[in-house]
Write a structure and sequence with these properties.
Elements lengths: L1 H14 L6 H33 L5 H24 L7 H28 L6 H21 L4 H20 L4 H49 L10 H18 L3 E9 L1 H8 L1 H18 L4 E7 L2 E7 L4 H16 L2 E3 L2 E3 L2 E9 L6 H18 L4 E3 L2 H18 L3 H4 E10 L4 E13 L3 E3 L1 H11 L2 H16 L7 E5 L8 H14 L6 E6 H6 L1 H14 L2 E7 L6 H5 L5 E4 L1 H4 L6 H16 L3 E5 L4 H9 L4 E3 L7 E2 H9 L6
Parallel strand pairs: 6-7, 9-11, 11-12, 12-13, 13-14, 14-15, 15-16
Antiparallel strand pairs: 1-3, 1-6, 2-3, 4-5, 8-9, 8-16, 8-17, 9-10
Helix pairs in contact: 2-3, 2-4, 2-5, 3-4, 4-6, 5-6, 5-7, 6-7, 9-10, 13-15, 16-17, 17-19
Length: about 650
């Protein structure tokens, strides 16, 4: 009983259609659409050839009526499958088509087998041999044509082979009995091959499915940021190209935005990369919650994200959306039970009124981001005509810088730092100037920012420092030199060593030199800056933190640096005598520097009222146009010999 049950289950498995495997069904459907028309063509041709040998021997019903009906059925099924070549209906229709083919295989096989055997009594031995040959060849052709639909091939083989073997075995004719035995053996071999081929076919389909799944997964991973799950840089540019094509076809505006987090680096350094990664994930989630179907979001890398906004109606709408993004990201985020606050600067450009293609769109958005971080940190900046003009100036400046004779064209001017306790000028800050033979005088704010952006600032630092040290060597021993370093100057021990070698070669006392670094430089890589500062401090140089109060450094980070001075940014000093908020900020910064036992220089003093306010707060060191504008090197000696009251 168990054996019978097992055979029954095996038979059901052989005859079943894999409804739970749509991919296999589609592969079977495609193969049958290509092979069944050929099978029916063979059937019809062989049938009418058999008719031709019996047309004068058998009754008209067997040589005309029945073959015509069988041919009509064959043409109907051929037409059905011919029309479906190259088509792929839904899975339900495919299953129905395959099931219909399997069911029809039984009556079609019975019809052709019964008809051919009905012709056997008519004619001589040659005619009877033709009938046997017709059945043998036809069933072989049908089996191979339907080998991808195993159940139909098995039904056809079972019907035709059973009829053939039983019929010709019972004739008692030795030749025909031998033919029946031969067909039995061949049929068994063919069915074994059929089953093996079908299993191989199903394995290939399954393997192809796994390969495609793996390929799709690899493609997804290749275009997805592994941390946030957002599209990555590669996918962003692909999506941007497609969005630009749609905008061109639909004659609509498109915007590209690049977003950079403000204050991410110190959090990442302070709490570790795992916290930094968690912060980026939450930023991605916040951004996802803000976008709609017209907006695509991607992570370009690090703490930089990008947006593609389609069908932009107005700049005002774009600006409002950008401001909302910046405001949402400014809300504190709780990480490891500690709320942290970052900001976000966003640069945006539009197509086709500003950018002409994907490359320009990205470049202009990146430039707008640069301007936002430089001038309006934590806000959105939309690329404008002014930015376009500035970018063109930057390009000219970059070209001139790259071919400049820096030693000959760069110069240094000096602005005095005044002690309010009556000591007069205690130091000069060295400031860079550039007179290009091609562009004329180029403002420092122009060429220094370009040099930083294109990575040339290190090449400017050395000749400027050499000239500043040469001038400072002529001053009295109690007058110090203050010199500004860029973020790149503090970016590696190798860059710092070049400056150390320059200082040593000059013969200037390093103890009289203050090197100014910005909070921006500190925030880029706190550990690296600590290492570089240690190298300078070991020489005896002082270290000033420039533009204090404008960045994102925390007190713990400031304590981690071997600073000697703080410089209060001029933005807090302007009109502080009439602006209570500025007054309080400067007061707090002076108190903080005193608590940290650091000298504090207040820069940007331009009026007597501002000076008076600073004196009331106990400021000791000041700098600004109220005392003197930056002066050429030769004038510094005259300045030092002139009493301050006569200035």
């Amino acid at each position: 009983m168990a054996l019978i049950k097992g055979l029954g289950e095996r038979l059901r498995a052989l005859m079943a259609l894999p409804r739970d495997d749509p991919r296999l069904l589609r592969a079977q459907y495609t193969a049958l659409a290509r092979q069944l028309p050929m099978m029916y063509f063979i059937l019809v041709v062989n049938t009418w050839i058999l008719v031709a040998t019996h047309v004068h021997l058998a009754p008209l019903a067997l040589t005309l009526v029945v073959p015509a009906l069988l041919t009509a059925v064959s043409i109907w099924r051929t037409s059905y499958w011919w029309r479906r070549r190259g088509q792929m209906p839904d899975d339900q229709e495919i299953h129905a088509s395959l099931l219909r083919t399997a069911v029809l295989s039984l009556p079609v096989a019975v019809g052709f087998a019964a008809w051919s055997l009905s012709l056997y009594p008519y004619g001589d031995d040659y005619a009877r041999a033709h009938v046997a040959f017709y059945m043998a060849i036809t069933v072989i052709g049908c089996i191979f044509s339907m080998m991808h639909l195993r159940c139909a091939a098995l039904i056809t083989s079972a019907v035709v082979d059973t009829a053939f073997i039983l019929f010709f075995f019972n004739t008692g004719t030795p030749v025909l009995v031998a033919c029946a035995v031969n067909i039995l053996l061949v049929s068994v071999a063919m069915l074994v091959i059929l089953n093996s081929h079908y299993n191989t076919f199903t394995r290939l389909v399954a393997e192809q499915a796994r390969s495609e799944q793996l390929s799709d997964e690899n493609l997804r991973l290749a275009h997805e940021d592994s941390l946030t799950g957002l599209p990555n840089r590669r996918q962003f540019f692909t999506a941007l190209g497609q969005a630009l094509e749609r905008a061109q076809q639909d004659n609509t505006r498109l915007a590209v935005g690049i977003l950079d987090l403000d204050g991410f680096k110190p959090i990442n350094d302070l709490y570790g990369h795992s916290v930094g990664d968690s912060l980026l994930v939450q930023v991605g989630e916040r951004l996802r919650a803000l976008i709609d179907t017209r907006t695509q979001l991607a992570r370009l890398g690090g703490d930089e994200f990008a947006l593609i906004i389609e069908r932009v109606e107005s700049d005002a709408q774009l600006l409002a959306f950008g401001q909302m993004i910046c405001q949402v990201l400014a809300v504190p985020i709780t990480l490891t039970d500690v709320p942290v606050q970052i900001g976000a600067s966003l640069g945006v450009t539009t197509y086709p009124d500003r950018a002409a293609d994907a490359e320009q769109a990205f470049e202009f958005a990146d430039y707008a981001l640069y301007q936002s971080k430089r001038n309006h940190r934590g806000q959105v900046s939309v690329f404008s005509e002014q930015h376009q003009a500035q970018l063109e100036r930057d390009i000219l400046t970059e070209q001139a810088l790259r071919r400049a004779d820096l030693d000959a064209e760069l110069a240094v001017v000096f602005q005095p730092i005044i002690a309010l306790d009556g000591r007069g000028t205690v130091a000069f800050e060295a400031l860079a100037r550039w007179h290009s033979p091609h562009l004329g005088f180029v403002p420092p704010g122009q060429f220094i920012s370009v040099a930083e952006r294109i990575g040339m600032i290190n090449q400017l630092t050395v000749p400027l420092l050499r000239k500043a040290l040469a001038t400072a060597s002529q001053w009295p021993g109690d007058v110090r030199l203050s010199f500004n370093l860029s973020a790149r100057d503090c970016g590696s021990p190798q860059a710092a060593q070049v400056l150390i070698d320059t200082i040593r070669a000059s013969g200037f006392d390093p103890a009289r030199l203050d090197l100014e670094i910005t909070e921006t430089a500190v925030m880029q890589d706190l550990q690296q800056v600590q290492l570089v500062i240690a190298m300078f401090r070991e020489m005896g140089c002082g270290i000033s933190l420039d533009d204090f109060g404008t960045g994102y450094s925390s007190l713990s980070q400031l304590h981690a640096l071997a600073l000697t001075k703080l410089k209060v940014d001029r933005s807090f000093v302007s009109d502080m005598h009439i602006n209570p908020a500025s007054f309080k900020i400067v007061k707090s910064l002076l108190a903080l520097s005193a608590d940290m036992q650091l000298d504090c220089i207040v820069e940007g003093v331009e009026s007597a009222q501002e000076l008076s306010a600073l004196e009331s707060l106990g400021a000791k060191l000041v700098q600004g146009y109220y005392f003197a504008k930056p002066m050429p090197a030769q004038q510094t000696l005259v300045w030092l010999e002139t009493p301050l009251c006569e200035v």
